[in-house]
Amino acid sequence: MEKSGIINIDEKTVSFKGENDILILSSKFINPNESLYKNADKIKPIEGYDDIVCHGSPEGLIINGMDNEEWIYTAKEAAEMIRNSKGFSGRSIRLISCQTGANGIYSVAQQIADELGVEVMAPTETVTVEPIEGKMFVSDNDILTRLWIRGENVVETGKWVIFKPRKAGEK
């Protein structure tokens, strides 16, 4: 079922339609009308990591549709989307997705690492990506974020955490 430039594959999974009606699964699971979609192109890659950009929470990944729909994906569903995206090569992942590294071993990032069998780097708090150089700031403090956007030298309140895949049954 086609809807405003989005193809609904199975009532939940969303991909954007590309040239000649070809289905494209990219590394950006974001509505192309959002500023984050454009800003993500400026983010500098890290050696050894594939970047996956998506909205998120400590419990899952979030995709916003063109008509204000919102789909929330569990770690298992998100891992399947990532596995099938052209942005995933089987290397470690930097999950540029707000709060997906919060809650430590109970985070969605840890669960995705377990599902995919690769290291996942994820932020503990909200990630802001600036549009000029793609620099990122991790903080849930709106005042600090606004100061950072204005070019002030402020300290992040969040951090990036690396989650290693665990063996089945391991805690």
Write a concise keyword list for the protein shown above.
seven-stranded mixed beta sheet, 171 residues, disordered N terminus, 4 helices, 13 strands, four-stranded antiparallel beta sheet, alpha+beta
Global geometry = globular
Cα end-to-end separation: 41 Å
**Record field, number of beta strands:** 13
Largest sheet: 7 strands, mixed
What portion of residues belong to β-strands?
25-35%
Instruction: Specify the number of helices.
Output: 4
**Helix fraction?**
10-25%
Give the overall pLDDT as a whole number.
81
**Run of helices and strands:** EEEEEHEEEHEHEEEHE
The poorly predicted ranges are 1-26
Structural class: alpha+beta
Backbone CA Rg: 16 Å
Walk me through what this model shows.
With 171 residues, the protein is an alpha+beta fold. Helices cover 18% and strands 28% of the residues. It contains 4 helices and 13 strands. Strands 5, 6, 7, 8, 9, 10 and 13 form a 7-stranded mixed sheet that branches. Helix 2 packs across helix 3 (108-116).
Can I get a quick summary?
The chain is of the alpha+beta class.
